[in-house]
Structures are given as C-alpha cells and as structure tokens.
C-alpha cells in the first residue's frame, strides 16, 4: 500500500506540538496502542529532528512519522533526512512542495479557500490540509468537494470527538487532530497516557462508524 493510501486508511493524524523530548516516545506509543498510526511532530518542538529520528527508529513499521508547521524547504529537507515520511505546512509554499516531492515524501500543504486549495493541489500537494477547518466547519468540506471532487481534503484545526464523524461523512479523507487528542501541557502521568490511548480509540470508532454509513 502506498504511503498516501496508508495515511488515508489510518484516518487520523495526531498533531504533537511542544511535547517534552523525554515524553515523545511515550506519547507515540500511547497513540499507537489506541490505533492512531500517523503522527505529526511539529518543528517548533524542542529537539524536533532528534525526536523524529527516535520515533521513526523505535516504532518503525508501526507508525508513520512526519513533520508539521514546516515553513521552508530547508527545514523540510532536514526533517525528511531525519526520517519524516510526510511534511505538513500551514500554507501553500510551492518551493516547499517541490522539495518534499523531490525527496520522495508526501506533501500536505495547508489551504482554506478554493483558490488556495486548487493551487496547492496543482503544484503537487498529495493531500490538502484544510486549515483552520473550524473557520467553517464540517459542511465546508462537502462544499469544496462539489466543484473539486478530485482533491483529497484533510481538515485540521478544531477537529474533536464530537465532529470528526461529520467531517468524514462530508468527504474528508483523514483529519489532523491536535490538543483534543494530545495535550502536551503539564506532567505526562500514566493516567494521561491512558486517556490519550482511550481518546484515540474513541475517535477511530467515530471514523469507522461514519465511513460505514457511507457504504
């Protein structure tokens, strides 16, 4: 199965922002145990390149690790060389997309308007991150898919347990989920790790239910 297909099949991309370096592998393992197998580590996280390499190595074949909040081609290159399999960016940066594809990684640029979404796709974006998705909500995905059905859309920003199923029903191929799933503030106790695992399971159950309703 190709990487793009795996990301879509996995359905949820856990956005891990600002985690302590000593917590990253524990968080990644908790997510994997809950069934979430695609992890985005944002580049504003301390020691991010080392962490991408660590998680990629330790959980190889079990999870897909990528870099998020990438703003330039050089940062993307460093992340890919550290083991990132995909690059998330908050905007459409054509040079960044081209560099990502040149190195064989999946490009997921962020866009909001139809013009931005089409530009990102036409310039090589494999999946378009609709960001911030909570600006318009789940129905917006359906509105965009009507004139642009060929473009895979991944809502990110404000996706939670209550609305993830609606995003899927309206045509999202996957969803990026941040603090609702992984809140990195405070101490990472065993109880919080269990909560991450359980929330992951619940969100995937909502996705499965939504996808089943479409068949």
UniProtKB/TrEMBL annotation:
<dbReference type="InterPro" id="IPR000887">
    <property type="entry name" value="Aldlse_KDPG_KHG"/>
</dbReference>
<keyword id="KW-0119">Carbohydrate metabolism</keyword>
<comment type="pathway">
    <text>Carbohydrate acid metabolism.</text>
</comment>
<dbReference type="Pfam" id="PF01081">
    <property type="entry name" value="Aldolase"/>
</dbReference>
<dbReference type="InterPro" id="IPR013785">
    <property type="entry name" value="Aldolase_TIM"/>
</dbReference>
<keyword id="KW-0456">Lyase</keyword>
<dbReference type="GO" id="GO:0016829">
    <property type="term" value="F:lyase activity"/>
</dbReference>
<comment type="similarity">
    <text>Belongs to the KHG/KDPG aldolase family.</text>
</comment>
<protein>
    <submittedName>
        <fullName>2-dehydro-3-deoxyphosphogluconate aldolase</fullName>
    </submittedName>
</protein>
<comment type="subunit">
    <text>Homotrimer.</text>
</comment>
